[in-house]
Amino acid sequence: MPSAGSGMPSASSMEVDLGAFRVGGRALGQRPGPSDFYAAELRGSDVFEDAGNGVEIGTEAGVLDYVFLTLESFPGRLSSDGVALDVGRGSDEAAVRERFGEPYWVDRSDGEVILFYEYAAGAVELQFEFPDGGALGFITMSRDGVLSTEEQRSLYGVDKPWPPK
Q1: Nearest 5 degrees, angle CA 88-CA 138-CA 160?
Q2: Which end of the chain is more exposed for a tag (fewer CB within 10 A), N or C?
Q3: Considering only CA atoms, which of 76, 94, 88 is closest in space to residue 36?
């Protein structure tokens, strides 16, 4: 985020840390703070959406619940535990696997691929979506993600034990 006096923070200066599960200076499960550029909108809504910059941030009960990134237009930085990631728009499945390891589950349907990574016994989920089956297009980081419910695991055909180890 810019330092004081360098202008209003925005999506272009935002860092999404996929290792520490942080959006800017806030971790999933924390309340947005006054310095977060999305905080004002979230006071009156559960969702901040900046489609032009490929960012959607949602809250539940006032705390950060998820961030959805459209990489084609996301101007911010991706990191993992504070270290810049070499994974981003256009990365292939192999690049994501090399950086994040084997996913908990992979869905291959309708020509797209979604890699599901589960952390904290399934309390945090990262999804890497390849809409054309080749290039990374979307990243979702969420608390209690899609696969956290038995119904969704059934719909995705998950046959692995839950919660993940």
Answers
A1: 105
A2: C
A3: 76
